[in-house]
Design goal:
Elements lengths: L2 H27 L15 E9 L7 H6 L3 E10 L5 E4 L11 E4 L4 H35 L2
Antiparallel strand pairs: 1-2, 3-4
Helix pairs in contact: 1-3
Length: about 140
């Protein structure tokens, strides 16, 4: 495995964690949204990751076939289709005939913990890319 393919793996991890963080912040921002353009309350979204092959633009095709390096990618964004939480708020504009309002089902504390995990995973990928960059620079310095 070349150092350049390790850079590609780190970059794929950063892109996947960015998508995860975007979905988590969307969930947090819409935690009280009772009306969407599709109708009904906001539906929570989760990111599903998958292992993806990563090739470096600097490696030859033969090297790419020998390497079993894998990165991470977003396989799917899953929408939570469970029943919404119902709260009794008879004065709310979205209340039904019985006075209940459908709210998104979610846990803000859980989303915040997941968001911190995504941020730390992103930072770990940045640190790995920084270490590889330093190794490449030292290799170039040795060849001078």
């Amino acid at each position: 495995m070349s150092l350049f393919s390790v850079l590609s793996i780190g970059a794929s991890g950063m892109a996947a964690q960015r998508t995860r963080a975007e979905m988590l912040t969307e969930n947090l921002a819409n935690a009280e949204t009772t009306r969407t353009p599709e109708g009904g309350p906001y539906r929570r979204k989760d990111v599903v990751f998958e292992s993806t092959p990563v090739s470096s633009p600097f490696s030859s095709e033969f090297d790419a076939q020998l390497q079993a390096a894998g990165g991470v990618g977003v396989a799917d964004i899953v929408t939570d289709m469970s029943d919404p939480e119902r709260r009794y708020l008879p004065g709310h504009p979205d209340a039904d005939k019985d006075g209940y309002v459908a709210f998104p089902r979610g846990n803000a504390a859980e989303d915040m913990v997941d968001l911190m995990g995504a941020a730390r995973s992103y930072q770990a990928n940045v640190a790995a890319i920084g270490a590889i960059k330093d190794m490449i620079q030292r290799s170039i310095d040795l060849l001078r």
